[in-house]
Design a protein that fits this description.
GO molecular function, one term: hydrolase activity
CATH architecture of the largest domain: 3-Layer(aba) Sandwich
Protein name: HAD-IA family hydrolase
Bound molecules: xylulose-1,5-bisphosphate, magnesium ion
Number of helices: 9
CATH class of the largest domain: Alpha Beta
Keywords: Hydrolase
Number of strands: 6
Strand order of the largest sheet: 3-2-1-4-5-6
Organism: Aerophototrophica crusticola
Strand content: 5-15%
Length: about 240
C-alpha cells in the first residue's frame, strides 16, 4: 500500500544549486579565501553531498594554508553560507520543479503522508517552503503538509548512506516498501535504494549523467505524475 512520499529537496523539489553556488562563493569572499566555484567545477563538486563535506573535499586539493584554514573554520563558514543562502531564497529566486506542487496536493488530499529527506540544512528547507511561490490558496506549500522534515546533520552519515531515509521512515512509522522516494542524483538514489525504498528519479539540470539502475523509472520531471502512476510503477514487474 502506498502510504508515504519522501522527497529530496535540492534538485528535486526545486533547482536550488545555483543559489547554493552563489552562497558558497559569497562565503569564500567573506572569509578571504581565493576560491570561486564556477558552474563547471560546481557540477563536479556536487558529487560530494553536504556543504561542509564539499568545502573540505575541495580544500584537500589546495595548498596546506588553505586546508588548515578551512578545517578550522568549516563550521563557521557553513553557518555563514546557510544564512546567505537563506537571504537568496527569501528574495524569491526559486520555483518548484514542474509537477511537484500538483503531486504534493494530490497526496495531501488522498491522505498519503509527505516527508522530506535531504542533506541540506533544516533552515534551508523551511526557507524554501516559506518563500517559494506555489499555486495553492496560501500562495506557498504549507510546512504543516509534511509529517517529517529529515534534514542535514541529524544523522551520522550523509547520502549516499541511507541514514536520512531510515530516519524519515522511522519518524513516519512507514515501511520502506510502502513509500516512494523522489531523487535527482546518484547519491540520492543510492541512499534511498539502500534504505529499501522504491525510488523515482528526476535528474536535475546540475547532475552529470548517471546510471539509475534500480530506480522505479527515470522521468524528465514530475509534470503529470499521479499517485495512480506511482502505484502502477511499484507493482510493475522489474
Ligand atoms: C544536497 C546537497 C547540496 C547542498 C548542500 O544533496 O548536498 O546540494 O549544496 O547544502 P541532496 P548544505 O539533494 O542529495 O540531499 O550546504 O546545507 O549542506
Ligand atoms: Mg538532490
Amino acid at each position: 500500500m502506498l502510504r508515504a512520499l519522501i522527497f529530496d529537496v535540492d534538485g528535486t523539489l526545486a533547482e536550488t544549486e545555483e543559489l547554493h553556488r552563489q552562497a558558497f562563493n559569497d562565503t569564500f569572499r567573506e572569509f578571504g579565501l581565493p576560491w570561486d566555484w564556477d558552474p563547471e567545477l560546481y557540477r563536479h563538486l556536487l558529487e560530494v553531498a553536504g556543504g561542509k563535506e564539499r568545502m573540505l573535499a575541495h580544500a584537500a586539493a589546495r595548498p596546506p594554508g588553505e586546508q588548515a584554514m578551512v578545517r578550522a573554520m568549516v563550521v563557521e563558514m557553513h553557518a555563514w553560507k546557510t544564512r546567505r543562502y537563506g537571504q537568496l531564497v527569501e528574495a524569491g529566486r526559486l520555483t518548484y520543479r514542474p509537477g511537484v506542487v500538483d503531486l504534493l496536493r494530490e497526496a495531501r488530499d488522498a491522505g498519503v503522508a509527505l516527508a522530506v529527506a535531504t542533506t541540506t540544512s533544516l533552515p534551508n528547507v523551511r526557507g524554501l517552503l516559506r518563500h517559494t511561490p506555489a499555486d495553492l490558496p496560501g500562495g506557498v506549500v504549507p510546512e504543516g503538509w509534511f509529517a517529517v522534515l529529515a534534514a542535514g546533520d541529524v544523522v551520522r552519515a550523509k547520502k549516499p548512506a541511507p541514514d536520512i531515509y531510515h530516519l524519515a521512515l522511522a519518524e513516519l512509522g512507514v515501511d520502506a516498501g510502502d513509500a516512494v522516494a523522489f531523487e535527482d542524483s546518484r547519491n540520492g538514489l543510492a541512499a534511498a535504494l539502500a534504505a529499501g525504498i522504491p525510488t523515482l528519479v528526476t535528474p536535475s539540470a546540475w547532475v552529470r549523467p548517471f546510471d539509475a539502475a534500480g530506480a522505479l523509472a527515470v522521468v524528465e520531471s514530475l509534470h503529470g505524475m499521479r499517485l495512480e502512476t506511482l502505484r502502477d510503477l511499484r507493482t510493475a514487474p522489474a
